[in-house]
Amino acid sequence: MRSDSLFKEALEVLPGGVSSPVRRFEPYPFFAKKGEGCMLYDIDGNRYIDYCLAYGPLILGHAPEKVISAVCEQIKKGSTYGTPTKAEVELAKLVIERVPAAEMIRFVNSGTEATMAAIRLARAFTGKDKIIKFEGAYHGAHDYVLVKPGSGATAAPDSPGIPTDTIKNTISAPFNNEEAVASIIEDDDNIAAIIVEPIMANIGCIEPEDGYLKFLRKITSENGILLIFDEVITGFRIAPGGAQEYYNIAADLVTYGKIIGGGFPMGALAGSREIMEHISPAGDVYQAGTFNGNPVSVTAGITTLKGLTEDIYKELNKKGEMIRNGMKDILEDNSLEFYIAGLSSMFQVYFTERRVKDYTSAKTADLEMFKRYFHGLLKGGVFVPPSQFECCFISAAHRKEDLDMTLEVMEESIKKAIK
Ligand SMILES: Cc1ncc(COP(=O)(O)O)c(C=O)c1O
Ligand SMILES: N[C@H](C=O)CCC(=O)O
Q1: CATH number for 177
Q2: Is residue 80 part of a domain?
Q3: 79 FRET partner, CA 20 to 30 A, in 14, 70, 347, 407?
Q4: Is 8 labeled as catalytic in the residue annotation?
Q5: Which helix (H) or strand (E) holds 183?
Q6: Is 184 within the bounds of a domain?
Q7: Is 138 one of the catalytic residues?
Q8: ipTM of the predicted structure?
Q9: Average pLDDT score, the chain
Q10: Which of the residues 133, 212, 230, 402 is marked catalytic?
Q11: Ligand 2 site, residue 366, Cβ cutoff 6 A
Q12: How far apart are the first and last CA of the chain?
């Protein structure tokens, strides 16, 4: 069966034909058959150089041998136990070694669960109710954070079904704007936490301006507010210690997902002992999960973190530079207005004359042009996330020849996309 027919069947049984909204694109999404290294294969016989990488977790590429063999060994011994395991302790130590501000960690099943638990913990710890999040930031699909969100919810924000009583505790602010945050805090002494994606990767890819994260650190510390870094994407991607290491800032709480599970479902929240010991059963902030610390995901996480050597980070940075510089050259040669964003192994292009620094400037991008660019890439065998408001990722499995080929396809697709 081909993707077009399978999509018709899927529409009958899955809302919108997919299991997560971002996966849908027009006229129909391709259905994956297998992934290998940096390549993704569909059931129609096509092969794509993959820069979506399942929206970030696959930093070592698809099906890395060491991860797969460790997971297979684990599965033979059981898939879940409902008891503690030695592996959880090992993974906790691996994270804590890499992230100095993390002294304890709770494993959960997704980034959504991680941010939900972190916000509850911050509220309990501070005795305050409200949170500040940034416009266009995405922290998962739960009620506390679906206010001016990014990712798939950019098109239809502020989902129905969320009580107004919940939403009133979530204040959204423009990113990279010190005055906006300062004035919210000045007017309201009931703020428990600021939650921030240190690099906003769910509205494309937006970096913090110089000093912005330091400003957030300072204003939160001075006002008894916890600073939560949502590192579901940046964690273990831009440096072993994530954005905290990259920007040299210690957050009070940090949330993880994606890479920490080595391609299997997992999330986590971490922080100082003083804060984390409020989580049940050490403390009374309830957090629980049948699959928390699942041994299969934990095994994949351990193998992945151990595989992320210094050399791999250096290579990832180089590959990112190569793609970003190559794209700049192509766009300049074609006299297009554009903004190339990203660092390390993250990148995105916006077809706009504006410098993209927040939700409002990101929204000035030409979305029709992006659509044509996306379809051109797909036709040429390159898969990036189908939305302007997602980030592209490079893995350790991408080789120089894959990047060269990608730039050729990008050039062709951009030429065709210009109207
Ligand atoms: C920054 C960020 N936080 C939280 C989430 C939610 O993670 P998950 O999809 O694993 O629930 C995501 C992605 O989905 C994310 O990019
Ligand atoms: N942008 C989201 C995560 O980073 C995409 C994943 C999803 O919601 O399916």
Answers
A1: 3.40.640.10
A2: yes
A3: 14
A4: no
A5: helix 178-187
A6: yes
A7: yes
A8: 0.99
A9: 97
A10: 230
A11: no
A12: 35
